[in-house]
Amino acid sequence: MARREPTCYNLVAIGGPIVGPGNAASVMNILSHWFPLGWKHYLAGGFTIGLGVTLLFVLTGLVGGISTTFSAVWSFFTRFHFFRQERFVATRSWRMAYAMGLILGAAVFVATLGHGQVEITGLPWWQLLVGGVIVGFGTRMANGCTSGHGICGLASLQIPSLLAVLTFLATAILTAHAVHALGGL
């Protein structure tokens, strides 16, 4: 029987353990399918994000979830009752600085390591709008966004965050397979 080469859909087609001294080329082949533009910058980004939220928590005791930051910043601009809750109004100043730091960090990356190249999506504006509304609705339902639960919630050993992350992953996997089966991306 011929030995099949691994693909991004077939993780154990190499016929043995994925990790081992003889399978380094196979692991690199799998990584090249998953990360066609390289994987080191993703690792560096994840490390930097983890370090940032860790420092924020250790130095100040504050949790840096971005969906709460979004709601708190809106408290500057609207009188809508939801955004005027004490938990948003009381934290909006440091959260505004936090949001500005995210924007500044992205600008510094583009100017330095990004070589001035900004990635632009090819999706139509209406798909971005619909996706944003769906994500915003889900974020409110889950009491936080995927990154907030995945980074801050799991790091602080919150069981609701673990359940939320498992739900997010299961939903994303099922949706990706359904879209692929229906001929989508």
Description:
The protein is mainly alpha-helical and about 180 residues long. It has three domains: about 1-35, no CATH class; about 40-120, no CATH class; about 120-180, no CATH class. The chain contains eight helices and no strands. The radius of gyration is 20 Å and the shape is globular. Mean pLDDT is about 80; it is low at about 1-15.
Which secondary structure elements does this structure contain, and how are they paired or packed?
Elements: H1 24-34, H2 40-60, H3 66-74, H4 86-89, H5 92-111, H6 125-141, H7 146-155, H8 159-181
Helix pairs in contact: 3-5, 7-8
Features:
185 residues; mainly alpha; 8 helices; 62% helix; 0% strand
Task: Write a brief structural summary.
The protein has three domains: 1-37, no CATH class; 39-118, no CATH class; 120-179, no CATH class. The protein has helices at residues 24-34, 40-60, 66-74, 86-89, 92-111, 125-141, 146-155, 159-181.
- Taken as a percent bin, the fraction of beta residues is under 5%
Question: What quaternary form is this?
Answer: single chain
Gross geometry? globular
State the major sheet: none
Low-confidence stretches: 1-16
Mean pLDDT: 81
